[in-house]
């Protein structure tokens, strides 16, 4: 069953969310999960894990070769992340709306990055959360972080 609202699909779907090392270090995992549940999404899987080089190379394969790739991978391997699979109607675009714009400085108040982000200058990679950007990405990313679910 699928209801089309503008360009946004309202199918029940799953998304892969990461609270990145900056968010984990700042103790924001609970706040991010609270917002996910308050929105009405369900937690399907949850883990705290320090990403391996192999996981990050697969996860960020589309960004390989871009100027921010190396610093991004270095930052993402700097400590634990909280990884979650969430489920709900349109939760892929829905979580990205909760997260806000990539750059915390540009992210609107009311969003995770807008409310909790800091101005890190050039360190745009430190923006608290990751959320899958399409059903194809979500399926691929869930396989990286929770192979038992795919
Ligand atoms: N990123 C960065 N510099 C950039 C663009 C992206 O460091 O100019 C980092 C940032 O951490 C971002 C991640 O790379 O979250 C993935 O980029 P994407 O464009 O997919 O942003 P997102 O989907 O996370 O908003």
From TrEMBL:
* Compartments reported by the entry: Cytoplasm
What this chain does, per the entry, is described as:
Major role in the synthesis of nucleoside triphosphates other than ATP. The ATP gamma phosphate is transferred to the NDP beta phosphate via a ping-pong mechanism, using a phosphorylated active-site intermediate.
Q: Name one Pfam family in it.
A: NDK
Q: Is Metal-binding included in the keywords of this UniProt record? A: yes
Task: Name the positions where ATP binds.
Answer: 20, 68, 96, 102, 113, 127
Output this protein's name. Nucleoside diphosphate kinase
Whom does it interact with, and what assembly results? Homotetramer.
The enzyme's E.C. designation: 2.7.4.6
Query: Which residues catalyse the reaction?
Result: 130 (pros-phosphohistidine intermediate)
Alphabetical list of InterPro entries matching this protein: NDK-like_dom, NDK-like_dom_sf, Nucleoside_diP_kinase, Nucleoside_diP_kinase_AS
Catalyses which reaction(s): a 2'-deoxyribonucleoside 5'-diphosphate + ATP = a 2'-deoxyribonucleoside 5'-triphosphate + ADP; a ribonucleoside 5'-diphosphate + ATP = a ribonucleoside 5'-triphosphate + ADP
Per its record, what are the GO molecular function terms?
A: ATP binding; metal ion binding; nucleoside diphosphate kinase activity
Keywords assigned by UniProt? ATP-binding, Cytoplasm, Kinase, Magnesium, Metal-binding, Nucleotide metabolism, Nucleotide-binding, Phosphoprotein, Transferase
